[in-house]
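In the previous chapter we treated chains in isolation. Here, by contrast, the input contains two separate entities that must be folded as one system, with a combined length of 500 residues.
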Amino acid sequence: MSMRKSYAGVAIIAPTTLPYARSAEQGAAWFFGRTLKKMLDAVSIDKAEIDGLSIASFSLAPDTVVSLADHFCLDLDYIEQLPLGGASGVIAAKRAARAIQAGDAEMVACIGADTNQSDSFKDLVSNFSVASKKSVYPYGAGGPNSVFALIADNYMRQNGIDRRDTARISVSQRENASHFPHALFRELITVDDYLDARPIASPFHLLDCVMPCAGGEGFIVTTIERAKFLKLPFATLLSAAEKHNAFRSDPVAIRGGWSTFADDLYNQAGVGPADIDALETYDDYPIVSMLQIEELGFCSTGESGNFVRDIPLTTDGGGLPHNTSGGQLSCGQAGAAGGFLGFVEGARQVTGQALGLQVPDAKHVMVSGYGMVNYDRGVCSSAAILGAGKL
Amino acid sequence: MTDLELMKCTSCNSFQHPARELCGNCLGGDLSAETVSPEGVVLASTQLHYSLEKYFSERLPWNVGSVLLDIGLPVIVNSLDALIVGKRVRVNFASHGAEWRSLYAEAVG
């Protein structure tokens, strides 16, 4: 069992979504600054009170978190930039929590944001890493679709899962999104819509894929003391973990890294899978959410197909509310903001501040992340359990 | 089809793919090209109906797969024919008119 110390005393406040746009003229800094502004306004905190900034972005380069500190006239004691894509939201919170506990900072703004200018997605995909530039791009130049299609083809074949099963993730999330004001796609879809959508990279069709877009997601990590003083609803961090580059010997990735820490995550939080009131997974593809459902202990190994067949996944379906804002499959993928979306929605749910359907009396929300294909798999996995803070 | 050449660590003899600056196993700094058996088995396959690159988008649907080489190394490959999981293939670098060279798989026998 892990010897990880508690995250006691840490509060997460101001979960904020800057509405997404399919494309944008503005640069990434605009989305960071506007997300920060919206976040501060929501809780009536002055910019001068922010003494820490932790960010994730794909389109900010060559600027960095340092450029943002200068641009936004912030005087900071703690800055961090996480090149962790879909795993970045949980990890930003986890590390900011440690800075708060150590007294290195008192109020850390954590933001994932990206723009989506013309050709920026192609530029991102073709230059994602040295390995991907030399060794993935020349294989069809399908972006992450081709790598994840291979992972999905293998996982579905090994576990007897077909597209009617994976459809359940997309269809239920769209139902959740129909109540969420910031989702780019809010119209309901059926299993047949999913099956009949145009093929992209077998087994994926269009409704397996996320729409690249621009936007921002963020939250503030501070002390419970401060949150109470400000009379702000807050989430607590009951447990959090990250794992990078696990299970290298799987010739085709059939696991992320979540199963390496799932038991510790539950033990540290003092709860089990049955106590989780909502689950926010990283849904770059439905099959990736199913990997998380399996590895985080909601079903046994290889049983995610049966799980999604048996358990309702809509926010008000009486099963396991999953990706309650519609996830990236419905909201769009605003670059690294996609790695914050689940955490922000989880923090809203556990503080009773849902913008769409609220999970009644949500006490424990699990959030998981997955990021960064280098060659043939995502390298970074993360997860956290959020608790409901009491004012 | 000629023999397949991959980079091998001169210290611990680990093969490296994709190409690396140094050995991922022992961090040895010297790699040399080594001829290996080009055969392996298809582990997973996909047909792309979309590509960001003109070369491929003119040739859709495009076949991509994962092949476990007999030397124990998994590699991503292109293929001019549909790849069938479980079938044996032979893999080698080729360009087939593209500006770059990449691994292609073709059925054995």
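Helices of chain B lie at 54-57. Chain B has a mean pLDDT of 94. Compare these points with the single-chain example from earlier in the chapter.
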